[in-house]
Write a structure and sequence with these properties.
The protein is 49% helix and 11% strand. By secondary structure, the protein is α+β, with helices and mostly antiparallel strands.
Length: 159
């Protein structure tokens, strides 16, 4: 964790407990997780008891205490998606990324998660990649999607 980035997030928010969730959102977006040392600093600087900071960090699904990849890929395994082929889709995705749900690829590019419903059952199997919904997914479409993201990442590095 780069301390200077955390310092920048806390600027103008000192002793403002009401800023807790916004600061945690900024930390999650910047570091892709909430480092323990960062949470302790946030508690001290905002004037929030550490136990409350850790409670909030654990309560919201958007926050994670372990590092996530640069891209979060969520596969729905709810009943509607299940009957439309989600198990085959998840299996193919696991094979392509070489990780299981809850894990992150070695290069830190992707974290794979599974959920039980994304609330759009009619368009399943559904996946969400970096907050963008993809409908009627197939293993082939997933392969293309992952390849496109990898290519975009490479282009950013080489730019
Ligand atoms: S079961 Fe997949 S979106 Fe509802």
């Amino acid at each position: 964790m780069e301390l200077s980035k955390l310092e920048a997030m806390l600027e103008g928010r000192e002793s403002q407990p009401g800023q807790l969730i916004e600061v945690l959102q900024d930390m999650q977006a910047t570091f892709h997780y909430l480092p323990e040392e960062g949470l302790r600093t946030v508690a001290e600087r905002l004037g929030v008891p550490p136990i409350e900071v850790f409670r909030v960090a654990n309560f919201y699904k958007a926050f994670t205490l372990v590092p996530r990849g640069r891209h979060l890929l969520t596969v729905c395994m709810g009943t509607a998606c299940h009957v439309r082929g989600a198990p085959r889709l998840l299996g193919a995705t696991r094979g392509q990324l070489e990780i299981s749900p809850g894990e992150t690829t070695e290069d830190g590019a992707f974290t794979l998660e599974r959920v039980n419903c994304l609330g759009c059952c009619a368009i399943g199997p559904t996946v969400v990649l970096d907050n963008v919904y993809h409908a009627r997914m197939t293993p082939d479409k997933m392969r293309t999607l992952i390849q496109a993201v990898r290519k975009q990442d490479e282009e950013k590095v080489n730019a």
